[in-house]
Write a structure and sequence with these properties.
The complex is a heterodimer of chains A (about 400) and B (about 200). Chain A is an alpha+beta fold and about 400 residues long. Chain A is built from eight helices and 18 strands. Chain A is globular, with a radius of gyration of 26 Å. The model of chain A is unreliable at about 30-130 (pLDDT under 50). By secondary structure, chain B is mainly alpha-helical. In chain B, about 60% of the residues lie in helices and about 0% in strands. The radius of gyration of chain B is 21 Å and the shape is globular. Mean pLDDT of chain B is about 75; it is low at about 90-135. The chains are: A alpha+beta (about 400), B mainly alpha (about 200). Chains A and B meet through helix 1, helix 2, helix 3, strand 2 and helix 8 of A and helix 1, helix 2, helix 3, strand 1 and helix 6 of B. Strand 2 of chain A pairs antiparallel with strand 1 of chain B.
Chain lengths: ~400, ~200
């Protein structure tokens, strides 16, 4: 059981406040039931009604903290995916990570208040929330009956991290860090930039995105630049010059001015389902990928061209140049979960409507409802000691 | 202007149980009534700060309760250190009986019914509770780590896990940005994990 689960399990159950105690405090606050007429609600309302002699502190404002995940900062540009990068990443070896553990029960709300006659205006309601996910229930499932024609749960990949970096010219670079035995360096042309040696494929197609490869003592790292960017363009060189690797092969970057981390994180368990969604008499397809405690960088493996765009009333990103022009592809984060929703035959409004029908659930319940077991994390096959994925300055 | 009269009484009647529960979880049932009264006094006295466009009455009262708890931090810490899981068992949610195992083949279409799950809990569908081993030492370590958190972080953590507050609700209660709450929760998770691991060795 991970730490958050333990804290949740330790939640004390509190019986409803005894009526006598409620009445006692009520009388103390409002004087109701007291003989002295001057302490009636009406009389007291003219003089402030509530009198407290106890000193009250003003709650200290939470200290500003480093925003590791500036999730909704501007993202522009795109990164192409080199096939070799994807293959290399998929076949990589992973070790287990208990942070992927999740809770097994939903959080119950506080006891409902006793309904009482009211002369006041109706109680205000909370601002609408796009999805009801929470730390305890980080995943979404349809609340009704839907046909599912694809279900998959992919294991976590400890030792693997990824990061989306916003570059001053508005483009985006994708960085993937993989611990373990490095792949072959055949076919790569190396240059030394700053403190690191960078390899680029010699037989790269001129119109393909540049993929930079870094070999580390016990791992490797890819940086995929935006499509159309020239090899070793100034922005790339500036970023590489800011990189350094410590004795554990952990990457540390002092982000140069104008660069920012859009999102980063370790590789977590992903939950994928493709649903057949009834829309005005037709059946359309929506694919939803969810990663609790994940990052946009994982969902955009290899890089994607994203643009900020509201979705269901809250900030999100839309893929602005998908390979299929009919594809509607949206990325967002609610609570600690990142989502990727896509469809080739549904409009953005239809996808918003679909999302509004989803309810929150736990990973265990998601797995059971869709009859798909949560896989165990693969074991390590590397001869190296597992390395940190990112250094202290970047470790999410 | 403080909230007074029937409106104040209505506010109290509508929310006192929830506010008391929040406070009782943090300081115990003995100290809770007095702090509940104090929280309502604070909330009513500062009611002019309530903005119905930003949040609900309940969240405003949670803010007052959190402020009150801050004034009684020692009481809270003593209580939190003593918190343990009642009974030390958990039950596993039951499987959805409407998904046929025979349909779990190679990418077949499957019909999944979710809505009935709540009704099925505790029914006769072989709930098969899974009993987990109680670990008093682990619970004590976790609560010590919770107590050792920065008070702001403790508020965020316990509002999230004990009061089922969303990140936007926590942001409203604690007058923070949602992004700060989100990033704080990730950091708190790491800090707790490290803290518990260190005390385990």
């Amino acid at each position: 059981m991970n730490v958050f689960n333990t804290v949740y399990a330790l939640r004390p159950e509190i019986d409803p406040m005894p009526a006598a105690e409620r009445a006692r405090i009520r009388e103390s606050l409002f004087g109701i039931g007291h003989d002295n007429a001057t302490r009636s609600v009406r009389a007291r309302s003219e003089s402030g009604a509530v009198v407290s002699t106890a000193p009250h502190g003003t709650r200290a404002t939470a200290a500003p903290r480093r925003r590791w995940r500036p999730f909704f900062s501007m993202l522009k540009g795109a990164v192409g995916i080199a096939a070799a990068v994807a293959v290399g990443a998929v076949v990589w070896s992973f070790v287990s990570d208990d942070e992927a553990a999740t809770v097994s029960e939903s959080v119950s709300s506080a006891p409902a208040p006793t309904p009482m006659p009211s002369t006041a205006a109706p109680t205000t309601v909370a601002a609408p929330v796009r999805t009801p996910v929470s730390l305890a229930e980080p995943l979404l499932v349809p609340e009704g009956q839907l046909t599912v024609d694809e279900v998959a749960i992919s294991p976590p990949a400890p030792g693997t991290s990824s990061m989306l970096i916003s570059v001053p010219d508005g483009s985006t670079m994708w960085l993937g860090d993989f611990d373990g035995d490095p792949p072959s360096a055949d076919g790569l042309e190396f240059e030394v930039v700053g403190a690191v040696a960078v390899g680029v494929a010699q037989d790269r197609s001129p119109d393909s995105a540049v993929g930079y490869q870094f070999f580390l003592p016990c791992g490797f790292m890819f940086v995929n630049d935006a499509p159309g960017a020239e090899p070793y363009r100034p922005e790339a060189v500036t970023l590489f010059e800011a990189m350094a690797f410590d004795a554990n092969s952990a990457l540390n970057v002092s982000m140069p001015g104008g660069f920012s981390i859009i999102d980063a994180g370790t590789w977590q368990t992903s939950f994928t389902a493709q649903y057949q969604v009834p829309v005005e008499g037709a059946t359309k397809t929506a694919r939803l990928v969810q990663v609790p405690n994940g990052s946009l960088a994982q969902l955009t493996f290899g890089g994607r061209q994203l643009a900020p765009s509201p979705f269901a009333g809250d900030p999100a990103y839309i893929e602005s140049a998908p390979g299929d022009p009919n594809l509607v592809s949206i990325y967002w984060q609610d609570a600690d979960t990142v989502f990727h929703l896509s469809s080739i035959d549904m409009t953005l409004a239809e996808l918003e409507s679909f999302v509004s029908t989803l309810e929150a659930t736990t990973p265990e319940e998601w797995s059971e409802r869709l009859s798909t077991p949560i896989p165990a994390a693969p074991t390590v096959t590397t001869s190296c000691t597992p390395q940190p994925s990112l250094g202290p300055t970047l470790d999410p | 202007m403080p909230l007074t009269g029937a409106a104040a009484a209505r506010l109290y009647d509508d929310h006192v149980v929830a506010v008391h529960a929040l406070i009782a979880r943090r300081v115990g049932i003995t100290a809770a009534p007095a702090l509940t009264q104090e929280a309502f006094e604070l909330a009513l006295r500062t009611w002019d700060q309530f903005d119905s466009d930003r949040g609900t009455e309940r969240l405003f009262l949670y803010g007052a309760a959190t402020t009150t708890l801050r004034d009684h931090a020692e009481t809270e810490i003593v209580h939190l250190r003593s918190v343990r899981i009642p009974g030390g068992t958990t039950e596993r949610p039951i499987a959805d009986p409407l998904v046929s195992p025979s349909q779990n083949g190679a990418a077949p279409a499957r019909v999944v019914e979710h809505a009935a799950n709540s009704d099925l809990r505790g029914g006769d569908s072989d709930p098969t509770p899974v009993i987990t081993r109680r670990d008093d030492d682990q619970e004590a370590r976790v609560m010590r780590a919770v107590v050792a958190l920065d008070p702001d972080d403790r508020d965020i953590l316990l509002l999230s896990l004990w009061e089922a507050c969303s990140q936007s609700a926590i942001a409203e209660v604690l007058s923070m940005s949602v992004s700060s709450v989100r990033s704080s929760l990730g950091r708190i998770r790491r800090e707790l994990k490290i803290s518990v691991a260190e005390t385990s060795t």
